Amino acid sequence: MLKSACLVIVLQALFLVQAETPAYIKQCRRDDPKLVDCFIGAIEHLKPYLANGIPEIQLPSVEPFKMDTLALQLTEGPQGYKITLKNMEAFGASNFQVKSLKLSDGNEPFKAKIVMPKLKIEAKYTSSGVLLILPASGGGDFHANFEGVSADLTGKTSRPAAKGGKYLHIDALSLVLDVKDVKMSISGAFNNNRILLEATNLFLRDNSQIVLEAMQAQLQKKLASEFGKLANQLLKNVPIEQFYVD
């Protein structure tokens, strides 16, 4: 009788542990000889949840992935052409693949490489200055299509203790972005003045890589900051133990 009661208690405990593991967490065995591959699979398991958001932990959808402002100086001189991008939205961030992952070891940072086939950016923009000898101050809609996007991530973590156990926290994150092909354009600007629209789009078409280089440092910093916030919002809700199954 006592053995039966103990068995029931054990089974109930196991059921509760399993029930407490959220659906968005894919667990890995600690002794898995391919533990890194399992973690890569666990990260990719998150893709549909990142696309839709996880309301129970206040994790917003990354479709679109939102950023605030980028300010670019594209040509030099007192009348140099400047663009400010606001209310930026990136589409396609959830369609990623983890190409490599190196776990942190002691004081060594973790490293990861992720790729996205396409990333589309929509934003509101304002501009000032002279472009191709034409005054080009105005505002409108900015469009960019990135193809062959890869990001090299490097970060440091800690394991602060809190109620319910220890949790992983990303303390610092940096990101290096590489884009194979980029196309940029504007619309709805200059009161739809055809000459100014065509001149600006000609400049963006012929100089998209130069514009990308001008925005890259700021874009990388903002992406790293937003990625870190999203990751920590998830990690603070899942104790480290829940990432493993024995």
From TrEMBL:
Q: Does the keyword Signal apply?
A: yes
Membrane spanning stretches: none
Q: Record's Gene3D superfamilies?
A: Haemolymph juvenile hormone binding protein (3.15.10.30)
Which Gene Ontology cellular component terms are annotated?
extracellular space
Kindly indicate whether the keyword Lipid metabolism belongs to this entry.
Answer: no
* InterPro entries membership: Haemolymph_juvenile_hormone-bd, To_sf
Query: Which protein are we looking at?
Result: Circadian clock-controlled protein daywake
